[in-house]
Amino acid sequence: MIHMLTVVTRRQIAKGATELVCRLPDATVIEPGRFMHLRVGPLLRRPISIANVEGDLITFLFKEIGQGTKELAQLRPGDQIDALGPLGNGFPVQHVAPDARIVLVGGGIGVPPLYYTMRKLVERGISCEAILGFDTADSVFYEDEFRALGPTTVTTVDGTAGVQGFVTAALEPNRFDTLFACGPEPMLRSIQHVPITHKFLSIENRMGCGIGACFACVCPTPDGHYVKTCSDGPVFRAEEVIL
Amino acid sequence: MSRLQVNLPGLQLKNPIIPASGCFGFGEEFAKLYDLSILGGIMIKAATGEERYGNPTPRVAESGMGMLNAIGLQNPGVDGIIAKKLPFLGQFDTEIIANVAGSTPEEYETVTKRISQDPVVKAIELNISCPNVKSGGMQFGTDPRMAAELTKRVKAVSDKPVYVKLSPNVTSIVDMAQAVEQAGADGLTMINTLVGMRIDVRTGQPILANRVGGLSGPAIKPVAVRMIHDVAQAVEIPIIGMGGVMEVDDVLEMIYAGASAVAVGTANFVNPFICQELISALPKRMDELGIEHILDIRGKAYGATLHRA
């Protein structure tokens, strides 16, 4: 459950965004959409999504926002990270129909887990498309990597790359029956009700324990109850949560 | 008797390590990680009369060597806990301490009466110190007369010994401790969190949706040690100490200060295996320091209590 990861490479891949490739001490099966709870920062762990797993290499892609992610971005090859996980429930890659028409929609730092998800879908022989939204051209990352897997559209808020606008500007709901999305809450809210039959959203929340014990990261549900982002999610059906 | 064994009213603890209330849920998540029977006891999440959904999010904010939380006593209600949580906990060979909260004295009485009759529960922890709810909680824990009155009422209906959980957000914690002792408390647990606030400078607004929350973690450990030290010398009833315990020496510090057992809270979020690790590290550290039985050092740090406030 706790793995000591060793940093293999670190590179800045876009404005404020760092890619960290680490070695897992043991081969671990990790489903796309789950996360690792990394012990960086002053005290609490940081939930970081998994951008890729290949053999014993695990890739994290994150934006430097606070003290934890800043520390993470300063790690060097050979440094160790105490990682709790993988935690949570990911995208139902193994459960979608082989003929599903899937669109993956990512916004900013919500893009990374969709790369691993798309890779796993393509491995199953399922064709899918990606729509990746960023603020500006210099914050775009992994465009070529996604294109290698399937049709990919990039949007930028200021129009400096790809389609101008938010991801919704490039989304044609009638072409798909399944949507996987990860991104900021306003983005998820805006696609929560698009007319696509199966919608799965990966949501973000401030977490404490990461295992469902502290009740910090709850999200209300339409039936008046709540779900825990860390252990019931972070991936939910769109109709399960109130954003 | 094992060198870690600690016997307190209602509690036969095989070792002095107890996960603190609110930091361990009802044990289900941690039971997937290790055998809960190794624990001295478990302080389960607070029970209220009805199910509570707690505060809006964000509910946690980190701060230097500490964290603020404002969960707001989210729990399935006393009936839900008795029906769904206690049977699960009953399968483990460890002492279950039920934390009881409420908005009114009547709610505290009802919950205590119900939950203390369950054979799985060995003691009650009276939560008069939660800073994160609008009514009840800490208001009972900051006025010695109100705390004493509530303790008396809860004692009268409880089937099991009652430990009162003290708030550090008071002028004199010694006065609070003596008041609840005179009202019949069987023990004390201390300290609950310190009320605090953090502001996001990008928005100029508090990070927590509840605006304020309770500070826990290593940042508050010296406050806890000082308060245990002062209270332990002013009362006869035992103290279960808590507040920022992260490593084995922190456990010893609390016992030197006068605690008879130690609860571990925030550390469970950082390292979910911490209680297991502390229990296995204790004998070795005691050997190094020449401590035969864990309680041989209890209160050995006593001295003048200069700061009664």
UniProtKB/TrEMBL annotation, chain A:
<keyword id="KW-0274">FAD</keyword>
<comment type="function">
    <text>Responsible for channeling the electrons from the oxidation of dihydroorotate from the FMN redox center in the PyrD type B subunit to the ultimate electron acceptor NAD(+).</text>
</comment>
<feature type="binding site">
    <location>
        <begin position="46"/>
        <end position="49"/>
    </location>
    <ligand>
        <name>FAD</name>
    </ligand>
</feature>
<dbReference type="InterPro" id="IPR037117">
    <property type="entry name" value="Dihydroorotate_DH_ele_sf"/>
</dbReference>
<feature type="domain" description="FAD-binding FR-type">
    <location>
        <begin position="1"/>
        <end position="93"/>
    </location>
</feature>
<protein>
    <recommendedName>
        <fullName>Dihydroorotate dehydrogenase B (NAD(+)), electron transfer subunit</fullName>
    </recommendedName>
</protein>
<keyword id="KW-0285">Flavoprotein</keyword>
<dbReference type="InterPro" id="IPR001433">
    <property type="entry name" value="OxRdtase_FAD/NAD-bd"/>
</dbReference>
<feature type="binding site">
    <location>
        <begin position="68"/>
        <end position="69"/>
    </location>
    <ligand>
        <name>FAD</name>
    </ligand>
</feature>
<keyword id="KW-0479">Metal-binding</keyword>
<keyword id="KW-0001">2Fe-2S</keyword>
<keyword id="KW-0665">Pyrimidine biosynthesis</keyword>
<feature type="binding site">
    <location>
        <position position="230"/>
    </location>
    <ligand>
        <name>[2Fe-2S] cluster</name>
    </ligand>
</feature>
<comment type="pathway">
    <text>Pyrimidine metabolism; UMP biosynthesis via de novo pathway; orotate from (S)-dihydroorotate (NAD(+) route): step 1/1.</text>
</comment>
<feature type="binding site">
    <location>
        <position position="214"/>
    </location>
    <ligand>
        <name>[2Fe-2S] cluster</name>
    </ligand>
</feature>
<dbReference type="Pfam" id="PF00175">
    <property type="entry name" value="NAD_binding_1"/>
</dbReference>
<dbReference type="Pfam" id="PF10418">
    <property type="entry name" value="DHODB_Fe-S_bind"/>
</dbReference>
<dbReference type="InterPro" id="IPR017927">
    <property type="entry name" value="FAD-bd_FR_type"/>
</dbReference>
<comment type="subunit">
    <text>Heterotetramer of 2 PyrK and 2 PyrD type B subunits.</text>
</comment>
<dbReference type="InterPro" id="IPR019480">
    <property type="entry name" value="Dihydroorotate_DH_Fe-S-bd"/>
</dbReference>
<keyword id="KW-0411">Iron-sulfur</keyword>
<feature type="binding site">
    <location>
        <position position="217"/>
    </location>
    <ligand>
        <name>[2Fe-2S] cluster</name>
    </ligand>
</feature>
Automatic annotation (TrEMBL), chain B:
<feature type="binding site">
    <location>
        <position position="165"/>
    </location>
    <ligand>
        <name>FMN</name>
    </ligand>
</feature>
<feature type="domain" description="Dihydroorotate dehydrogenase catalytic">
    <location>
        <begin position="4"/>
        <end position="286"/>
    </location>
</feature>
<comment type="subunit">
    <text>Heterotetramer of 2 PyrK and 2 PyrD type B subunits.</text>
</comment>
<dbReference type="InterPro" id="IPR050074">
    <property type="entry name" value="DHO_dehydrogenase"/>
</dbReference>
<feature type="binding site">
    <location>
        <position position="99"/>
    </location>
    <ligand>
        <name>FMN</name>
    </ligand>
</feature>
<dbReference type="InterPro" id="IPR049622">
    <property type="entry name" value="Dihydroorotate_DH_I"/>
</dbReference>
<feature type="binding site">
    <location>
        <position position="127"/>
    </location>
    <ligand>
        <name>FMN</name>
    </ligand>
</feature>
<protein>
    <recommendedName>
        <fullName>Dihydroorotate dehydrogenase</fullName>
        <ecNumber>1.3.-.-</ecNumber>
    </recommendedName>
</protein>
<feature type="binding site">
    <location>
        <position position="127"/>
    </location>
    <ligand>
        <name>substrate</name>
    </ligand>
</feature>
<keyword id="KW-0963">Cytoplasm</keyword>
<feature type="binding site">
    <location>
        <begin position="69"/>
        <end position="73"/>
    </location>
    <ligand>
        <name>substrate</name>
    </ligand>
</feature>
<feature type="binding site">
    <location>
        <position position="191"/>
    </location>
    <ligand>
        <name>FMN</name>
    </ligand>
</feature>
<comment type="similarity">
    <text>Belongs to the dihydroorotate dehydrogenase family. Type 1 subfamily.</text>
</comment>
<dbReference type="Pfam" id="PF01180">
    <property type="entry name" value="DHO_dh"/>
</dbReference>
<dbReference type="InterPro" id="IPR033888">
    <property type="entry name" value="DHOD_1B"/>
</dbReference>
<dbReference type="InterPro" id="IPR005720">
    <property type="entry name" value="Dihydroorotate_DH_cat"/>
</dbReference>
<dbReference type="InterPro" id="IPR012135">
    <property type="entry name" value="Dihydroorotate_DH_1_2"/>
</dbReference>
<dbReference type="InterPro" id="IPR024920">
    <property type="entry name" value="Dihydroorotate_DH_1"/>
</dbReference>
<comment type="function">
    <text>Catalyzes the conversion of dihydroorotate to orotate with NAD(+) as electron acceptor.</text>
</comment>
<keyword id="KW-0288">FMN</keyword>
<feature type="binding site">
    <location>
        <position position="217"/>
    </location>
    <ligand>
        <name>FMN</name>
    </ligand>
</feature>
<keyword id="KW-0560">Oxidoreductase</keyword>
